[in-house]
């Protein structure tokens, strides 16, 4: 079995999903999120000029930041992400061609899965982590049922309708990565508001999992 890059050891298993982010606000929002303690940032490709925003954030943040794209659907998208300097690839589905191209670039991959069939397919294709999506539909119980049959070392993430209020419940079933979307960022929010929400999420993570070293 081949693999893409392993999911890096982050201080906290939190991914900021900045859907709708504009290039002119990308650096300020990215810095606010990173400085609050969230080291992984995803700009979905259905945002305005997403590769411009990704490139700007990559340049502005330290090399330890894990910056990339969400809603990656095609091999061409993967090429664009690589050119922008992004290392994190998140998708709502599992696609063999997308995974193969990501592997070529050594990216960290987090494809979306909803069923055991999709989960095992993603593992076979070398996913760095699984993105159970939409997690709010599956719930902790649904993820727990599938987690029981997955390889023990599988890194499991919950995305979709997830907020800082859900960390404890999902932690109990083995979820260690959370993608935070509208609970963290919505178009039109001020940088200060995003920073406040990011700090709230970080405080909740530290309460549930222990403070980052």
TrEMBL record:
Its EC number is 4.1.2.21. Pfam families: Aldolase. Keywords: Carbohydrate metabolism, Lyase. It comes from the Bacteria. Signal peptide: none annotated. Coiled coil: none annotated. PROSITE patterns: ALDOLASE_KDPG_KHG_2. GO terms for molecular function: 2-dehydro-3-deoxy-6-phosphogalactonate aldolase activity. The keyword Transit peptide does not apply. Pathway: Carbohydrate acid metabolism. Belongs to the KHG/KDPG aldolase family. Homotrimer. NCBIfam families: PRK09140.1. PANTHER family: 2-DEHYDRO-3-DEOXY-6-PHOSPHOGALACTONATE ALDOLASE-RELATED, 2-KETO-3-DEOXY-6-PHOSPHOGLUCONATE ALDOLASE. This is 2-dehydro-3-deoxy-6-phosphogalactonate aldolase. It comes from Mesorhizobium helmanticense.
